[in-house]
TrEMBL record:
This is Transcriptional regulator. Residues 252-323 form the HTH arsR-type domain. It comes from the Bacteria. InterPro entries: ArsR-like_HTH, HTH_ArsR_DNA-bd_dom, Metal_resp_trans_reg, WH-like_DNA-bd_sf, WH_DNA-bd_sf. The lineage of its organism: Bacteria, Bacillati, Actinomycetota, Actinomycetes, Pseudonocardiales. Keywords: DNA-binding, Transcription, Transcription regulation. CDD domains: HTH_ARSR (cd00090).
């Protein structure tokens, strides 16, 4: 659990960033590219990257980020500098300007939790050439994986901001509205976290940064001395609702967005169906149906409730709207 402690003046200094941070997006996108299930809502991006992206650049960037930002309790803060709030150029400049003492410290901490290959040694020593090679590689990865999709990402961020700020009316309302990502219990904001820690704002306020590629759990800097920042996943359902209202969808048809089988599962649910009933309607195995309903449920298109020995699947309002718009 991460407990963020607010004191006098912190609420007034708390704000939501107006755009994503390019370095955080690169870190999270690498995870989405390498995990087994990147989530239904990211499938159009994932298919397009794999189909049209520069494979050599992407493979190189993924390998680099896998070493420097492993999935686990820690990765170096220098890789996601606060200057990312001012855009990619400012962030890469900040990485190249990282003090050597800080690099040595953070790489020692990284080595304690994850293997660090020999090629990281010049980075840990702050060699100018190594830092330049790193930032050049990050810039190429960003151009291949993030930049081509900036319009979709910006729309998701804008929609998330509009919903959260419009429903809040105040900073406390905003924090309350972050449930279930986090739990506001004044004066402490509680966040489910990989490790148990406390962060005291001490009048600095908190910067909330929306992320398109972050999933499930918000993330903060490891160093409490850095500007207090919490990166959180946007609510993708709101983007879908906005597209449905305006008559637009991320791809040309429901089958293209969900895949033929999942769109068939969504349609076959009808007014409600158990896993066995869906399997019979679709001529599929119950285990295959369960995998698809799990993905649809995570995307907010289905709900599942247990009834005795069976589970009943029903479409949500969003699932019905998406199906009807097709």
């Amino acid at each position: 659990m991460l407990r963020i402690h607010f004191s006098a003046g912190d609420l007034e200094r708390t704000q939501v960033a107006e755009r994503v941070d390019p370095l955080w997006e690169m870190v999270f996108s690498r995870l989405r590219l390498t995990e087994g299930n990147s989530g239904l809502l990211l499938q159009p991006w994932l298919r397009d990257v794999r189909r049209n992206g520069d494979r050599q650049v992407i493979r190189s960037g993924v390998r680099l980020l896998a070493v420097l930002s492993p999935l686990g309790p820690y990765f170096p803060d220098f890789l996601t500098p606060p200057e990312g709030a001012d855009g990619l150029t400012a962030a890469l400049d900040a990485i190249r300007a990282t003090p050597r003492a800080r690099l040595r410290t953070e790489f020692r901490m990284l080595a304690d939790v994850s293997p660090t290959p020999g090629w990281t040694r010049p980075l840990a020593e702050g060699c100018d050439g190594a830092l330049t090679e790193l930032t050049d590689a990050l810039a190429r990865y960003h151009a291949a994986v993030i930049e081509p999709y900036s319009a979709v990402i910006d729309e998701a961020i804008e929609t998330d901001r509009l919903h959260r700020s419009g429903a809040a009316g105040s900073v406390e309302g905003l924090l309350h509205g972050m449930w279930p990502l986090m739990n506001w219990r004044p004066p402490v904001l509680e966040v489910q976290y990989a490790c148990d820690r406390d962060l005291h704002l001490n009048g600095r306020g908190l910067r909330l940064v929306p992320s398109y590629f972050c999933r499930r759990t918000p993330v903060a800097f490891a160093d409490p001395g850095l500007p207090p920042t919490l990166v959180y996943p946007v609510h993708h359902d709101w983007t879908w609702q906005r597209q449905l209202t305006s008559g637009r969808r991320q791809e040309g048809s429901l089958a293209a967005l969900l895949g033929t089988t999942r769109s068939a599962v969504l349609a076959a649910v009808g007014a409600g169906a158990t896993t066995t009933e869906l399997a019979q309607r679709l001529g599929a195995s119950p285990s295959a149906v369960s995998r698809h309903t799990a993905v649809l449920r995570e995307a907010g298109l289905l709900t599942t409730e247990r009834e005795g020995m069976s589970v009943l699947h029903q479409r949500t309002l969003l699932g019905s709207a998406l199906l009807g718009s097709n």
